[in-house]
C-alpha cells in the first residue's frame, strides 16, 4: 500500500504565520482559522484558539497570554504551538473520528533542521502518527494545478503572513528558491508605523490588517478609496478617528513590496536560461494572502516585464497542495523534505 493506506484519515496542514488551514483526505478543507492561541498563564491550559483568540490580542489581563506562536513562517513559541496544534487535532479527531493521522505540513524554504524538528515534534505531540514536510512554494504549485513533474520551468511566488517564498520548479523539484521574511505581517507593521508617523495615532495590528485588506493597493487606483479607523491619539491619550486613503496605504507598504519584487528579480536572474524561456512564456503565478493586494500582479508584471497571474483561491493553494500530495503520495514523495532525508 505504500506509506499511506487508502483508508487512513490523513491530514494536510498549512501551518502559516497568519492562518492555519487543514485538509482531510476525502473531505477537502475542514478548518481555516487564525494562528493565534490564548493560554491561562497560571494553569498552562488553552482558553481559546483561532478567531476567538485573535479577538483577545492586545486585550488580555495579566493572567492570560494571547500569542501568535509562529513568526516569519517558523515556530517562535514552541510550547504555544504544541498546545495549539493539539487543540486543533483534538477538535478534528472528535468531529471527524480521526485517530493518529499521518500528516503532511507545508513549511518555508530554507527551514533549518532545528526548525524542521520543532514542527515534527509539535505535530507528533498533537497526536500525529507520522509527519512529512513539504516546502510551501512546492505545495502551492501543486495546489494551484501546475504540472510540477514536466521538464519545463514554472515560477511561483507565495506571499504569506511571515515569509515570501519564490521558487522555480522543474521535473518535480525546486531548481532555485529564495525566501525573505517580508510578507503580510510586515505590511501590517508598515501601516501601523505610517499612521503613527503621519497622524500621531497608535493603532493595533488587527486594525492595520483590516486597512490592508479593505483599501491596500500596490499601485494607484483609478478611484481613490478611503476608510475611517479608530486609534489612540499619542498626544492626548484619548481615542481618535482618522480617515486613511488607499494612496497613503500604498505609500506605507511601498518599500516592503519593493523588497518582495527584488527577491523575485534575483530569483529570475539566477534561473538557468533553458528554464527562463519557459517562464517567460508561462508567466509568474502568485499565491498566498499577499496575492489579494490590489494591483500587486500589475506592479510585478511592470517591474519584471513578464506576465503575472493570481492563482485561483490564493489563500488555499498551500493546503490544497498538501492534500493533493496525500492523494498521490507514492508519486510525490520525492517532494517531501524529510522523506528525501530518510532514504
Name the helix and strand elements from N-terminus to C-terminus, one letter apiece: EEEEEHEEEHEHEHEEEHEHEEHHEHEHHH
CATH topology of the largest domain: Nucleotidyltransferase, domain 5
CATH architecture of the largest domain: 2-Layer Sandwich
Helix content: 40-55%
Name of the level-1 CATH class of the largest domain: Alpha Beta
Per the principal axes of the C-alpha atoms, what is the gross shape?
flat
Strand order of the largest sheet: 3-2-1-9-10
| Termini Cα gap | 18 Å
Helix count equals 12
Number of strands: 18
Integer average pLDDT? 91
Largest sheet: 5 strands, mixed
Please indicate the count of domains: 3
Radius of gyration: 21 Å
Relevant CATH superfamily of the largest domain: ATPase, nucleotide binding domain
What fraction of residues sit in β-strands? Answer: 25-35%
Task: Briefly note the structural class of the backbone.
Answer: alpha+beta
- List the uncertain runs: 1-7
Amino acid at each position: 500500500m505504500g506509506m499511506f493506506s487508502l483508508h487512513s484519515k490523513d491530514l494536510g496542514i498549512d501551518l502559516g504565520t497568519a492562518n492555519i488551514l487543514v485538509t482531510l483526505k476525502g473531505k477537502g478543507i475542514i478548518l481555516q482559522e487564525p494562528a493565534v492561541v490564548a493560554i491561562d498563564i497560571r494553569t498552562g491550559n488553552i482558553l481559546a484558539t483561532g478567531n476567538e483568540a485573535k479577538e483577545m490580542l492586545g486585550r488580555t489581563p495579566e493572567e492570560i497570554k494571547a500569542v501568535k506562536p509562529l513568526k516569519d513562517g517558523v515556530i517562535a513559541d514552541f510550547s504555544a504551538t504544541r498546545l495549539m496544534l493539539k487543540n486543533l487535532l483534538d477538535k478534528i479527531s472528535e468531529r471527524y473520528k480521526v485517530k493518529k493521522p499521518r500528516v503532511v505540513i507545508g513549511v518555508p524554504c530554507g527551514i533549518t533542521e532545528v526548525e524542521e524538528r520543532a514542527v515534527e515534534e509539535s505535530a507528533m505531540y498533537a497526536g500525529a502518527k507520522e509527519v512529512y514536510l513539504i516546502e510551501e512554494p512546492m505545495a502551492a504549485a501543486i495546489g494551484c494545478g501546475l504540472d510540477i513533474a514536466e521538464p519545463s520551468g514554472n515560477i511561483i511566488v507565495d506571499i504569506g503572513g511571515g515569509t515570501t517564498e519564490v521558487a522555480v520548479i522543474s521535473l518535480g523539484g525546486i531548481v532555485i528558491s529564495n525566501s525573505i521574511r517580508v510578507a503580510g505581517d510586515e505590511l501590517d507593521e508598515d501601516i501601523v508605523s505610517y499612521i503613527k508617523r503621519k497622524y500621531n495615532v497608535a493603532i493595533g495590528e488587527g486594525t492595520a490588517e483590516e486597512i490592508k485588506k479593505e483599501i491596500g493597493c500596490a499601485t494607484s487606483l483609478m478611484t481613490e478609496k478611503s476608510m475611517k479607523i479608530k486609534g489612540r491619539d499619542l498626544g492626548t491619550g484619548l481615542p481618535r478617528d482618522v480617515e486613511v486613503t488607499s494612496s497613503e496605504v500604498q505609500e506605507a507598504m511601498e518599500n516592503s513590496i519593493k523588497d518582495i519584487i527584488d527577491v523575485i528579480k534575483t530569483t529570475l536572474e539566477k534561473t538557468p536560461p533553458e528554464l527562463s524561456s519557459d517562464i517567460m512564456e508561462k508567466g509568474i503565478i502568485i499565491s498566498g494572502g499577499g496575492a489579494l493586494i490590489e494591483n500587486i500582479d500589475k506592479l510585478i508584471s511592470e517591474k519584471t516585464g513578464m506576465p503575472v497571474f493570481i492563482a485561483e483561491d490564493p489563500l488555499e493553494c498551500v493546503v490544497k497542495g498538501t492534500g493533493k500530495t496525500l492523494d498521490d503520495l507514492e508519486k510525490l514523495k520525492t517532494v517531501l523534505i524529510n522523506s528525501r532525508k530518510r532514504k
